[in-house]
Design a protein that fits this description.
Length: about 550
């Protein structure tokens, strides 16, 4: 590696953190500065292109596979690069933020992969951004331990061969890092901060451990965005002097536009691609966001009524498996978000059966692995995939040539019988307020009503409220969804929370802010693309 030029980045409005100098070194910041200089202009162009695409969807209320890339889809000769040994078997992956306790528990969980999350499961406080990087460095150098002050319980890493392989997820392209700015005062994209710091410090270290710098790429909306990531990987590998093709990326197909470009996304990343993932919650959010003004045929029912057996969701997941296996990539299934209860075995029994059925279906459909949000779910998901895979690391040989998904199948929302209900509206408000409040306290992964919620589920909640109001939806109890009804439900929920936790805890929290922000992003005529954008302006730290 050649000597880096001095960084032109400045850290602003950030309290010093313990050991931050180990992460924010001059050399690491010089690398991030160079990523910013080279690639942020293209990022900005692609964000503008998103707005143009959305305007076109609003005008036509439809989507199709791209005619200009038909030759890529029709060319059967190309494949992605073979998976490295550490990513051959991905049958169970656990997700979670990179705080110190989670880092140890996820690595020790028995899952094959840990999605170390700087995105939807992490609120981007400066502390979470910087110390999350430090925790991963400490894990790779085996300098990490943790003692819970409340319980006195201590946590330490198991032997290296028992640890999950880390696949790190940086923030999406739309988020900027306000605490790191260039000489013009322009913030660096959060994606480049997260990727840059992690890659710079750990790429060679991971190779020495027999693994590599592996990434999940979130919120991708087109193959052109995948192309940008590929250009970043090529530059980064040359910059630190590791072989081309060392990086491996798994792209979350969690936007409706990306679902029409799966093959093109793999093609753009083919030397660095590891697979695609069915990010179900963000996918539903994306459908609502893009077709929010498309009328009754695009109205989604209650979130929990949209199961993976819904025809349009089935089309999406089966197309993903077929696409991945045709091109030699892993197909990774969706999230089991249930959080086991220590107090209610009956709740657990019912939920475990649902998780088992979900994972059995994914394994039977040809997925090579799936996600869970809690260590107690690892054995259940493992059993489902073990039954199908046996000793094989994956089932990429199952080509699913029986699958034939047409463009219209992916947006056939009205094929679902379920309708919005009053209980669904209440749940959307409850989850929205409770999640946003925790996010404003710096927590990105939050257990609410025995489910692990992250930013994606809050996005669905507020988007559905917006959609139901603007589509004039009438609920099962005969009430029409209006702004006034949403305000009434939100006020009742705020009162219920105060009664539940007491005045002191209520006052100490961010409950009124969360209530106000949920209503703002649910009721404003001008729909905010991401709730985390206005929320970030209120996030302290």
């Amino acid at each position: 590696m050649s000597a880096p030029a001095p960084s032109t980045l400045a850290i602003v409005d950030a309290e010093p953190l313990p050991r931050q100098e180990e992460v924010l070194t001059e050399a690491a910041l010089a690398f991030v500065a160079e990523l910013h200089r080279r690639f942020t202009p293209r990022r900005d162009e692609l964000l503008a292109r998103r707005a143009e695409r959305r305007a076109e969807i609003a005008r036509t209320s439809t989507l199709d596979f791209l005619p200009e890339t038909a030759s890529i889809r029709e060319d059967d000769s190309w494949k992605v690069a073979p998976a490295p040994a550490a990513l051959q078997d991905r049958r169970v992956e656990i997700t979670g933020p990179t705080d110190r306790k989670m880092t140890i528990n996820a690595l020790n969980s028995g899952a094959k992969v840990w999605l170390a999350d700087f995105e939807d499961a992490s609120a981007p406080t400066w502390e979470n951004v910087v110390l999350g990087q430090l925790n991963l460095i400490d894990a790779y150098t085996r300098k990490i331990d943790f003692t819970d002050e409340r319980t006195g319980k201590s946590y330490a890493l198991r032997p290296d061969e028992e640890l999950a392989t880390v696949v790190m997820r940086p923030r999406g392209w739309h988020l900027s890092e306000r605490h790191l700015v260039d000489e013009r005062g322009v913030p660096v994209p959060g994606a480049l901060v997260d990727f840059g710091l992690y890659f710079f410090h750990n790429a060679q270290r991971l190779l020495d451990l027999g693994k590599g710098p592996y990434f999940y790429l979130p919120k991708t909306e087109s193959h052109l965005e995948a192309r940008l990531w590929n250009e970043i990987f090529v530059f980064a590998q040359d910059y630190v002097g590791i072989p081309q093709g060392t990086v491996r990326a798994t792209v979350l197909i969690e936007t409706i536009t990306a679902a029409y470009e799966m093959e093109e996304i793999l093609y753009e990343l083919r030397d660095h691609a590891a697979g695609l993932n069915a990010g179900r919650w963000d996918y539903l959010f994306s459908i609502v966001k893009n077709f929010r003004d498309g009328g009754a045929k695009f109205v989604l029912p209650d979130r929990n009524a949209v199961t993976m057996t819904a025809p349009f969701m089935r089309a999406y997941t089966e197309l993903l498996v077929r696409t991945c296996h045709k091109r030699g990539a892993h197909a990774i299934g969706g999230m089991a978000a249930f959080i086991p209860s220590r107090k209610d075995p009956e709740v657990n029994k019912v939920a475990f059966e649902k998780v088992r059925a979900d994972k059995d279906r994914e394994a039977g459909d040809g997925f090579d692995g799936s996600w869970v949000a809690h260590p107690d779910l690892v054995p259940i998901a493992m059993e489902s995939f073990d039954k199908v895979l046996g000793d094989k690391p994956n089932q990429k040989d199952r080509l699913r040539e029986d699958v034939d998904v047409k463009a219209a199948d992916l947006i056939a929302i009205d094929a679902l019988d379920a309708k919005p209900t009053y209980a669904g509206l209440v749940n959307a408000v409850q989850v929205g307020i409770r999640y946003i409040e925790a996010w404003l306290r710096g927590l990105g992964a939050v257990a609410i009503f025995n489910l692990m919620e992250d930013a994606a589920t809050a996005e669905i909640s507020r988007s559905q409220i917006w959609q139901w109001i603007n589509a004039g939806v009438v609920l099962d109890n005969g009430e029409k969804v209006t702004a006034d009804l949403a305000r009434k439900v939100a006020a009742a929920e705020l009162d219920a929370i105060r009664a539940e936790i007491g005045d002191e805890a209520f006052t100490a929290g961010h409950w009124q802010e969360a209530h106000d922000l949920l209503l703002k992003v649910s009721l404003d005529e001008d729909y905010a693309d991401f709730l985390t954008l206005p929320a970030y302006e209120q996030l302290k730290g």
